[in-house]
Amino acid sequence: MKKILMTALAAASVQVAVAQNSAVNSAVLNHKNGTLDKALADINKATEHKKTQDKAKTWFYHGVINQDLIGHPIYGKVATEKTPEVVLQSFNKTIELDGKDGQFGKQVPERLEMLYGQILNQAVEFHNNQDWDNAIAKYDLASSVNPTDTTAILYAAYASTAKQDYSKAAGYYDKLISVGHATEDVFKAKIQLLQAAEASDDKVMASIAEGLKKHPNSVYLMQEELRYYLKNDRAEEAMDKLDKAIQADPKNASLYAVRGNLQERKGNLDEAYKNYQKAVEMDPNNFDGFFNLGVLEYNKGSEFNNKAAKMDYATYKKQGAKLEAQAKKHYEASLPYFEKALEIQPEDQATLANLQRVYTRLKRTADAERVGKKLKN
Question: Which of 13, 187, 206, 254 has its CA 20 to 30 A from that of 29?
């Protein structure tokens, strides 16, 4: 009698277990058959039942079914704005219960990769419609799905910039740096955003210093650092820093170009000229050296020209021609520098504009028109 009772209890136990798992199995079957609305109803029941709510299989299929609703031509309307978050939470729960190497846990990465693309597509759609808040929210969610991918972070920065939330945009560049995408352009963009947000000089200079640790030869970062040194009456400190850098790396053309820029800012034009010359000697393709040499020569020519223009008629008749000849000499001297700079950077707008001015001064009308056609209005 005792043996019969135990057998009956065992049979009852099997029936209960089957009943408990029927919602999950039904969800899986309906998902396989493509009836996602029924699959969703079944799997939602399973997540709430005490016997199945802690099973990895339950949460994996809860994620799969919800994910397959996204963008579905028939059942897409069943999905909500929160569906991608639900999917992410479900897959995270799967990993929590099953581990990364479990039967269901090992299937999660492929599904997360798919989810990242789905959310990113939604973000781009909001972005294209200039719905910046929703775009940023979706980029953030995509980034939480794949924290090491830089695409969502970068586009969140673009959207924040378009929204004119410059501080937030700068924060996204910080995030890019933290995941190893610490390019010179990233630091440049971050610094420009901090400046647009009117951040304190100390905060901007800290970012510049951080950038220079990664990119010690960045002309932009060096020049920005020097600009802030000058702004804060630290010119001598800046010059001392540059001199030490050149001593440590005497063949670095960029350092000479930056020192020339600093000397120019201080009004020491002869020293600036020498440093720019040194830069182009060290590196025949040093754009900054050639461009600034051209500017120095052009400005000297303009000084003579302006003097002649300010003379009264009697004085001009005596001295004007001589001054204009000196001006022409400097304009002619600036020309090869600007032409070389353009050869190095063929699309640089400042170089094209300066070349147009020089050609005009030298009455080379055809050349001025040719260069002018490349200028962007």
Answer: 13
CA 178/CA 92 separation, integer angstroms:
23
Per-residue pLDDT of 21-36, as tens digits, reads: 688 999 999 999 999 9
Decide if 24 is inside a domain: yes
pTM across the whole model: 0.68
Best CA proximity match to 252, nearest among 288, 214, 295: 288
The rounded distance, in Å, linking the Cα atoms of 231 and 202 is 12
Q: At what angle do helices 151-162 and 108-128 cross, to 10 degrees?
A: 20
- Identify the domain containing residue 117 by its residue range: 17-163
Reduced 3-state DSSP string for the chain: CHHHHHHHHHHHHHHHHHHHHHHHHHHHHHHHHCCHHHHHHHHHHHHHCCCCCCCHHHHHHHHHHHHHHCCCCCCHHHCCCCHHHHHHHHHHHHHHHHCCCCCCHHHHHHHHHHHHHHHHHHHHHHHHCCCHHHHHHHHHHHHHHCCCCCHHHHHHHHHHHHCCCHHHHHHHHHHHHHCCCCCHHHHHHHHHHHHHCCCCHHHHHHHHHHHHHHCCCCHHHHHHHHHHHHHCCCHHHHHHHHHHHHHHCCCCHHHHHHHHHHHHHCCCHHHHHHHHHHHHHHCCCCHHHHHHHHHHHHHHHHHHHHHHHHCCHHHHHHHHHHHHHHHHHHHHHHHHHHHHHHHHCCCCHHHHHHHHHHHHHCCCHHHHHHHHCCCCC
Q: Each residue of 326-373: pLDDT tens digit?
A: 999 999 999 999 999 999 999 999 999 999 999 999 999 999 999 999
**Residue 66 banded pLDDT, cuts 50, 70, 90:** very high
- Nearest CA to 262 among 253, 251, 271? 271
254 in any annotated domain: no
Of the candidates 131, 132, 153, 128, the residue with the CA atom closest to the CA atom of residue 141:
153
* Number of domains the chain contains: 2
* CA gap 192, 210 in Å, rounded: 14
